[in-house]
Amino acid sequence: MDNQHPIRTGRHVVYAMHAHLVFVTKYRHDVFTDAHLSRLETIMSDVCADFEAELVEFNGEDDHVHLLVTYPPKIALARLVNSLKGVSSRRMRQEFPELERHYWRAKRLWSGSYFAGSVGGAPLDVLRQYIESQNRPN
């Protein structure tokens, strides 16, 4: 197993699934300080652990965050995203009541949309060539 593309195992599966996620604050308001981002990283790492996933990398700015997660194939990415956004929004509102001024109308910290991109592995062209080169049984 190399650190660049770690292979994980489950009971009946071997996998390497990574996703790049981006969550934007509601109305794209400038909300986060370094203290907020640090707490968000901890919260999101805990949520990932609950899903048997791992928060590999986290960073953000005042109006959005980036996550790199690795997750098992038994988890629907949309379920993980909904939990990450829901739990982090609820906990941040509890722990930082001053954030409420940024989302008083919507009662939500995050925009309803998000970005998710698959990452890792070989480029699509290389995979396509590999699959095409496989011999079919006669």
TrEMBL record:
Single Gene Ontology MF annotation: DNA binding
Domain of life, source organism: Bacteria
Biological processes annotated in GO: DNA transposition
Domain Transposase IS200-like: 14-134
NCBIfam families: transpos_IS200 (NF033573)
Name of this protein: Putative transposase
